[in-house]
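Design review, sub-item: ligand-bound model
Attendees: FS, YL, KQ
YL presented the inputs for the iron/sulfur cluster complex:
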Amino acid sequence: MSGLRDELAGYSKDLGIDLFGVADLTTARDFILRQGGEHVASFPRAISMGTRLLDAVIDELYRHEEPSAIYGYSGHYESVNANLDRASMLIAKRIQDAGFKAYPQVASQYVNMRRLEGAISHKLVANLAGLGWIGRNCLLITPSCGPRLRLVTVLTDAPLEAGRPIPNGCGDCRKCVDVCPVNASTGTTFDPSEPRDVRLRAHLCREYTQRREQRLGVGLCALCVYVCPHGLKKE
Ligand code: SF4
Ligand code: SF4
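KQ shared the predicted structure:
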């Protein structure tokens, strides 16, 4: 069904989307079922969409103790997420109008506060769609902009042609592990058969950002986004 896929990819560009891909979710069904439940896991495909964050904002994050840098990042983060949510809703509507089911997943929302997880991992979907690999910082790393992007997902039963995962490009790099102020990253290379806890102590990151919020008014840290050489390099 390349006609609908091409139409949706073209439409997504008009909506401010930089990266568009389709994931075959059937290979990860058990994982998705455990995280999101029966309804989420009932969809065989998903569209993954990403919007690149502005370099002028991310390049300031080495000053992440200074309000001008972190408030700038916080505002940008919120506006990009809002646009992703609008785009996912409009893409889902196009799919439904074409006669298929479509279920947009909010760009940034925990549904499991104990495990600090959404209904589905946008990073997993983007990885399956071939948009990038999961780095040591547990973020999606893309060849074009590293981790400097935000993601959203639209689940669907439309038989769209799916992409394929690309190889991990972290190599010997450990910059994101070394920069983390609370040692949240374990440095373990991504293995789809292992739970996230093997790679990321998410509670340490969460507690650190909560302390920052009390102290600075904005919790976001993102040093592991700033430091990745795949985002720092200029094409
Ligand atoms: S956001 Fe900051 S605290 Fe959290 S993992 Fe990245 S570097 Fe560590
Ligand atoms: S900073 Fe290095 S180790 Fe971390 S995600 Fe980027 S390339 Fe991989």
